[in-house]
Amino acid sequence: MSAWELPQSLTVGNKEWNIRSDFRVALDILKYFGDPNYEEDEQWMICLDILFKDFASMSPKLYQEACGKARWFLDLGEEKTEETQSPAFMNWEQDAGLIIPAVNKVIGKEVRAIPYMHWWTFAGAYMEIGESLFSQVLSIRQKKQKHQKLEKWEQEFYQKNRSMIDLKKRYSKEEKQKQKELLALFD
């Protein structure tokens, strides 16, 4: 496949499998990868079921290869290793309200109103986000994670917008239940 093409299928087990390539599908998959209520193997099965149109007819012998191809697709055709993984500075769900306006600005229209946009097109626009509220939030998050000093205006912005800037920890149902039980002890 050339860099000038957008994949609509992935080769698994020497067969072309049609995929759902719209950006909303990819974001839905990424949501499950961030959900602590699912084990990693469950997240991958959900990913394959969502991504591959005919997943139900895929042999379980092909699942591992299919996971590799799904990762390649979600990573925009790049082979990523553990060394290339960076710490999380953003969360697609939490930051959606910041990302969409910034991507809209790059694309020049409301992307949610477009019936179909390939994941790689959306991600390309995401990577081109320039000066925006989202880029300010990311900059402050990066500085905070690296324990770097914030500029005075960044400190003020952070104090006024903590809920927007701080990445929220997601808890599994079991963790939430344990927290409730612990709080009940203090009532």
From TrEMBL:
One Pfam family from the UniProt entry? Phage_Gp15
What name is this protein filed under?
Bacteriophage Gp15 family protein
The record lists the organism as: Anthropogastromicrobium aceti
* High-level lineage: Bacteria, Bacillati, Bacillota, Clostridia, Lachnospirales
